[in-house]
Amino acid sequence: MAAYVGTFWHLRLLQYVQFGSDRVPIRSSRSPRYDSDEQLTKLLDDYIACTSICGLDDYEIRPENCRLIDFEAVGADGRATPCRLITNNESGDTDYHIGLFGRCRHLQTGAMLATLDDHCVKIPDPTLVSELYEPHGDVDVVYDRVWRDEDGDDEEWQAMPESWKDLANASPCGSKYPPCGPLIFYSMLEFARLVGVATGFEFISSNRP
């Protein structure tokens, strides 16, 4: 089993990397060295080159807004699916927020497992994901969006399952209102919710041993 530096729900965090404006990777102090700096920079460059895929044709993807998150999704049968998620949380030339974008691939095969486009989490190949990940059944998949109620008086928030509140508080897009907006799920698969959790590993890894 690979070494991991933190756990949350059914995920094991393997590596968390952010990037400087000069594209130099900045590793979490607890992350093992899985890739060289050169390899990580190339991964970032390849991701930035795919702006049309990310829906950001008219906007420059800023390296300092990009994150690389390696994690394992551990299914109910004990199988661990290794994943690599690269995200960018983008704004335009003004303070107007463009959205959260990203791609989640199988860490070993490179197969696309999930996409994030303007906060929307989608599963392009549900059959593949279902073969790789056995759901636990304890993650509520009825809600199709999750947010954080910053004022504490939102009736919908009060009715939300506690596990979803955990997800919202961990997510970088937890706010219901602009400029961040909620995470929206276009799939009923449990794995899609876990990808949403993984986007918050930047915060989870700093708060949970």
In short:
With 209 residues, the chain is of the alpha+beta class. It has helices at 37-48, 51-54, 126-132, 155-159, 162-170, 190-198, 201-207; strands spanning 6-8, 11-19, 25-27, 66-74, 80-91, 97-106, 112-117, 120-122, 145-146, 183-185. It has seven helices and ten strands.
Overall geometry comes to globular
Estimate what percentage of residues fall within beta strands. 25-35%
Query: How does the major sheet shape up?
Result: 10 strands, mixed
CA radius of gyration: 16 Å
- The low-pLDDT segments are 204-209
SS content category = alpha+beta
* Oligomeric category: single chain
Per DSSP E runs of 2 or more residues, the count of β-strands stands at: 10
User: What integer is the average pLDDT?
Assistant: 76
Termini separation: 18 Å
Task: Explain what this protein looks like in three dimensions.
- The chain is an alpha+beta fold and 209 residues long.
- The chain is 25% helix and 29% strand.
- It has helices at residues 37-48, 51-54, 126-132, 155-159, 162-170, 190-198, 201-207, and strands at residues 6-8, 11-19, 25-27, 66-74, 80-91, 97-106, 112-117, 120-122, 145-146, 183-185.
- Strands 1, 2, 3, 4, 5, 6, 7, 8, 9 and 10 form a 10-stranded mixed β-sheet that branches.
- Strand 4 (66-74) and strand 5 (80-91) form a beta hairpin.
- The longest helix has 12 residues, at 37-48.
- It starts with 5 loop residues before the first strand and ends with a helix.
- Residues 204-209 have low confidence and may be disordered.
